[in-house]
Each structure stands twice: as structure tokens, then as C-alpha cells.
Amino acid sequence: MRKLFLGIIVSVFLSGLVTAQNIRLNAFSEYVFDDNIDTYYNPTSYFEGTIKGGFQWGVGGEYLVDKSKGVELKYLRRSANGAVDYYDNTLKHLDFNIGMNYILLGANNYFIVGEKFEPYAGAAFGMAIINFKDSNSSSESSKTKFAWSVKLGTNIWINEKIGIKLQADLLSAVQSVGGTLYFGTSGSGAGVSTYSTMYQWGLGGGLTFNLGEK
């Protein structure tokens, strides 16, 4: 129900945007690098591991307030594998699968340097819906956490309607990875209740489509 509700909000927002002028639709594709996660509370409550890098995609709708400023709502999705060592009476190891869904609202600032090149910087805030699955069992869990991102990039316009995006960004889900999140409630995670913030560095690009006036 939560995902359906969020989907309806995004659909309605984007539908409203495309009826206005100065609208862009953005498509994102990038490689996200490995992220080391760890936390230490005491000698019997800690974990450390890695979320493997991989492909991330996304879509967004952007309204240009003027030629140099835009407001953007976007959705990002990534699936990855990970491994963690944690202490629960004895040292244990766990492999897991993770699905990350981000819904972010933010602002972009463009630097006009010519007809073809449009460098930009941006920041966004929103939520991360994170799904964990223990790859050694059927145990699953899900959490919704506060998320933020910052980015630098440039649009290279092929013509007045289509441009290529080149972008580097940092995406973070705050206090999102912890023992009680993906170790389940069966007791295996009872001794590991601390959390680690997830940081994802990405490098890639995408396409931007100008639906209004350029």
C-alpha cells in the first residue's frame, strides 16, 4: 500500500508538470561504486561489510523556474548484493540482497556557458525505501529512511529538444543499514542493534528531453 500511495503521488505530480511550459523529462543511468558499511557499539555489538557496486537507473520530471534554476522530482532504483560480518555471541557472516528505491525532490542550478553546454549543480532530499533479503534464507525486511543527494554534471544539447547528461553524484540513506534491519527478528540480530549510514558514489549520465521552450 505504501508503494502504491507513493506511486500515485509521483504520477500525479509528473502529470501536472507536463501540462506546463519549461518542462524537462530526465532519464538517468550510472555505475554506483562499492560502499563500506560498519558500526561499533561495544565488543559484542558491531558489524562491518560491503554493499557491492552496480547499475542504477532513474527518471525525473523537472520544472524550470527560469533559464538557470529548476525544481526536480525523481525516482532512482538499484539492486545490489552485499556481505557483512557481525558479532552475535560468536563472529558470523551473512550474504544479502538489497533493493534501494529513492524518491527525491530537489533543486538544480544551471550555468549558462553557450548554446550546447549547460553545466549544473544540484541537491535533493526525500526518502529511501530499502528492502533486504537474506540470501541464505527466506528472511526479508524493509525500512523507509531519510535520504539526500548532491550532484555535478553538464547537459550537452544535440538539438533544442534532446540533450546528453554527464553526471557525478553522491547519494545517502541516513542510518539505513543495521543489525535489526536485515538480520530479522528470529533472534540472530538481537545483539546487533546499531546502524550505519549508506553512501553511494555514482558516475554516469543519461538523457534530458526539453518539452517546453529552451
- Main-sheet strand order equals 1-4-5-6-7-8-9-10
Q: Mean pLDDT, rounded to whole units?
A: 80
Category by helix and strand content: mainly beta
User: Strand tally, please?
Assistant: 10
Low-confidence stretches: 181-191
Specify Rg, calculated over alpha carbons: 20 Å
- Helical content class: under 10%
Query: For the terminal residues, how far apart are their CA atoms?
Result: 39 Å
Largest sheet: 8 strands, antiparallel, barrel
Number of helical runs?
2
- DSSP strand content: over 45%
Spell the H/E element sequence: HEEEEEEEEEHE
Q: Label the overall shape.
A: elongated
Tell me what the structure shows.
- The chain has a domain at 34-54 and 65-156 and 169-202.
- By secondary structure, it is mainly beta.
- It has an eight-stranded antiparallel barrel with strand order 1-4-5-6-7-8-9-10.
- It has two helices and ten strands; from the N terminus they run αβββββββββαβ.
- It has helices at residues 2-17, 179-182, and strands spanning 23-32, 35-42, 45-51, 54-66, 69-88, 90-110, 117-134, 140-157, 162-178, 195-210.
- The chain starts with a helix and ends with a strand.
Question: Which descriptors would you attach to this protein?
Answer:
single chain, 214 residues, mainly beta, 8-stranded antiparallel barrel, 69% strand, elongated
